[in-house]
């Protein structure tokens, strides 16, 4: 199976991939290396997901919005 380039997936696809990995772990008890092979994601990423799900719950794996905070830009002065 080819590796998945997560950067090309939409946020919904990335969230679904994380849920799939967690569900596989819960149902089959596969180790991180086997999950990485099945999902096509690097094993250290899988370990990070599993650790965060253990610490903070599965809901913590939902992707947050990735952009700068809204609002007006601060005033910048150039000189006296």
Walkthrough of the structure:
- The protein has 80 residues and is mainly α.
- It has a domain at 10-56.
- 50% of the residues lie in helices and 0% in strands.
- It is built from three helices and no strands.
- It has helices at residues 11-28, 32-39, 43-56.
- Helix 1 (11-28) packs across helix 2 (32-39).
- The chain is elongated.
- 8% of the residues are buried.
- The mean pLDDT is 82.
Give a quick rundown of the structure.
With 80 residues, this protein is mainly α.
Question: Which features characterize this protein?
Answer:
80 residues; mainly alpha; 3 helices; 0% strand
Are there runs of 5+ residues with pLDDT below 50, and where?
none
Q: Number of DSSP helices? A: 3
Rg of Cα set: 18 Å
Q: Report the mean per-residue pLDDT as an integer.
A: 82
Helix content: 40-55%
Q: Helix/strand-derived class? A: mainly alpha
Number of strands: 0
Shape: elongated
Percent of sequence in beta strands? under 5%
- Termini separation comes to 62 Å
The SSE string, one letter per element, is: HHH
Q: How would a textbook summarize the main sheet?
A: none
